[in-house]
Amino acid sequence: MNKKRRNNVSIKLTDDEKKRAEFFAEERDLNLSEYFRMSGLKHRIKPTIVNFEQSQNSIEESEKLIEAIMLIQQHIAENGYMHWHDYKNDSKVINALKYIRNRTFNDK
Which superkingdom does the taxonomy of this entry point to (predicted)? Predict the structure, then answer.
């Protein structure tokens, strides 16, 4: 039994995308329609895998940075200067500054 194709599907492509698709179709000795039909029906698309562990780590890391910034913020005046006498004896703030410094240099 001969199957007739009656359905049309149109897609929007940029000029560059169309040129690439035509190039790949020509390499396989296919016209553009046949190339899209074959690639659309025969190739399976791999599912997207989200790494939740990495997301959880980045959330925890962000919370640590916010906590460190909040500790430091208590020792900053409205004009932007740090109160040296207040924070030099506060070991939590000094550790927070070290944490931010190390975190900044490790990201680069």
Answer: Bacteria
51-64 confidence digits (pLDDT tens):
666 677 788 888 88
| CA distances for 47 relative to 37, 40, 50, angstroms | 20, 15, 10
How many domains is the chain partitioned into structurally? 2
Neighbours of 1 (CB within 10 A): 2
> Model pTM greater than 0.85?
no
The verdict on 36 and 56 lying in the same domain is: no
Question: If we measure between CA atoms, which residue out of 60, 59, 86 comes closest to residue 72?
Answer: 86
Letter string b/e over residues 45-72, b meaning 16 or more CB atoms within 10 A of that residue's CB: eeeeeeeeeeeeeeeeeeeeeeebeebb
Domain housing 26: 11-45
